Amino acid sequence: MVACHSGANALSGHLAGVELSAGFLARARVCIDITTICPFGIGEVDLNIDGCIGRIAFSPCATTDNPFFVEAGGTRLNKLHVAAAQLRLQTNFILPITIDGYGQLILDTRQIHYLLAPNSSDFFLSFQRERVSWPRYEKAPPANNLAFDICNPAYGQVPTNGRCGSAYSEPANSGWWLSASNLKMLNLQPGNRIVLPGTLNIYTLLAALGPSSNIIIDNPKLDFIAARNCYGTQIFC
User: Fold this and answer.
1) What is the residue-averaged pLDDT of the chain?
2) Which residues, at least 6 apart from 124, have a Cβ–Cβ distance to it below 8 Å?
3) HEC string of the chain?
4) What pairs with residue 70 in β-bridges?
5) How far apart are CA 77 and CA 13, in angstroms?
6) pLDDT (tens digit, 9 = 90+) per residue, 113-153?
7) How many angstroms separate the CA atoms of 81 and 107, rounded?
8) According to the model, what pLDDT value does residue 2 have?
9) For residues 5 and 199, what is the distance between their CA atoms, to the nearest angstrom?
């Protein structure tokens, strides 16, 4: 039984150019010994990780007009993966140290309770026996000059799959398939600070200075408020 207010448990389809803006909070333990071994916890420090993505007003991230987009698709998709989220790493080892870096963000789709669709011309639900590339409604490639749109080259995030230059949507897998473009999840503020499992080492911390960071923030708590539409034993979520 799915708990009341659980979001999208699984999705088969393609979410094209979803604009995401969110802040998140995490904490990790870090072994600062260059041997990467801190026996009995000696040499470990607490590390606060404050992060943000896209157009969001969340301290310590500066408000920006530069959007961030996510392309996600597959059969029974249950996670959204952001490969290079901006992080601010803060620790108080001897002296306060703040480092701006990157990390990977994984969002459980059960946290998603709604998607805004202000300009989604390619929204469809289909059912097919084999993979099909359905034509776009306009029968032409999407516009490349729209504000806050992934196909606009001004933002430097045009997808490499060629969708922005094609009159066809991403191929639909067999079975039920949902296709939607230009959706938005905006200004998601952080919930409680989550604690990352295990202990990071100093080399993982240094690698976080670049976008290939392998610091993984798995399912941060966001204030994605669900509609209160569950009554008694009837669940409409």
Assistant:
1) 83
2) 134, 169, 178, 179
3) CCCCCCCCCCEEEEEEEEEEEEEEEEEEEEECCCCCCCHHHCCEEEEEEEEEECCCCECCECCCCCCCEEEEEEEEECEEEEEEEEEEEEECCCCCEEEEEEEEEEEEHHHCCCCECCCCCCCEEEEECCCECCECCCCCCCCCCCCCCCCCHHHCCCCCCCHHHCCECCCECCEEEEEEECCEEEEECECCCEEEEEEEEHHHHHHCCCCCCCCEEECCCECCCCCCCCECCECCC
4) 18
5) 8
6) 778 887 777 888 999 999 999 999 888 999 999 999 999 99
7) 6
8) 44
9) 33
Has residue 237 got a pLDDT over 60? Answer: no
Residue with tokens 């993982």: 204
Give me the residue label for tokens 């969002």.
Answer: 107
Position of tokens 């041997």?
35
CA-only gyration radius of the chain, Å: 20
Say what percent of the chain tops pLDDT 90.
19
